[in-house]
């Protein structure tokens, strides 16, 4: 059979093949043996769909107009030398601060142990202050009764409650002592630091072995703490609130001045002795019951 006869008999099939060949050549696609293609898209972007199972790589003519270099994060500067904090020195087995002094509260301030203990520490720093002068610098407040007989007044965190010269006086807590020393006396070389919340061993390490006496709140002669009178607290404007406060019966303030293996040493305004020592366990228990209240009077740097 001649070529012409083949073309005549298979005219439709022949021209279809020629047409497909022309399109592939126009699109710049190579002819692969046994591979069929479906051509989709426009001249700007041509995507190929492989009609068989052979992988086909399609490329476009679009190229990004700009190129952004990836940002490198800043590397922090490394110091040439690194200071390692020095560990605290281990406290000695026994230490007592010298020249703390002692005075009692019986003659002048029968219920003012917080004021007497503060005076002991101020005298240790060479401050000559009288009780009358301290009372002028101290915030004080008395309890009152409503018409219905309800007792109300300020918190001992805000003022000394009652008269420290009378048996009916109550007392005050650390913030009142800090206010008196820092905001009213305003000494040039010392200040009061509210250390409430510190454990006794922390007070030893941070203050006592550095010759800094600390006021701590415990009980009279370390007896059990009880429940005293209760009253409704007032707000800043003097209005009575629903919050009720109960005074810790037998509350007492002493000056922590030293320790040994089994005892703590204190200057106690209720004792006639120069210093008193109490078993560590009992004083730690009373200190905890009084909510770890304490004040350190510290030298300014």
Structural class: alpha+beta
SSE arrangement, N to C: HHEEEHHEEEEHEHEEEEEEHE
Q: What count of structural domains? A: 2
Please give the alpha-carbon distance between the first and last residues. 118 Å
Strand content: 15-25%
- Helix amount, in percent? 10-25%
- Helix segment tally: 7
Largest sheet entry: 7 strands, antiparallel
Number of strands: 15
CATH architecture term of the largest domain: Alpha-Beta Complex
Radius of gyration: 45 Å
The top-level CATH class of the largest domain is Alpha Beta
CATH topology of the largest domain: Cathepsin B, Chain A
The overall pLDDT, averaged over residues, is 85
Low-confidence stretches: 30-56
What is the 3D form? elongated
CATH superfamily of the largest domain: Cysteine proteinases
Model description:
This protein is 24% helix and 25% strand. The chain has 301 residues and is of the alpha+beta class. The strands form four sheets. Strands 3, 8, 9, 12, 13, 14 and 15 form a seven-stranded antiparallel β-sheet that branches. It is elongated and about 145 Å long. It starts with a helix and ends with a strand.
Q: What is this entry, summarized?
A:
By secondary structure, the chain is an alpha+beta fold. It has helices at 3-9, 11-26, 113-124, 131-137, 174-185, 200-206, 280-289, and strands at 37-41, 46-50, 95-96, 140-141, 144-145, 151-153, 160-161, 190-194, 214-219, 226-234, 240-249, 251-259, 263-267, 276-279, 294-299. The chain folds into two domains: 3-50, no CATH class; 95-299, Cysteine proteinases (Cathepsin B, Chain A, Alpha-Beta Complex).
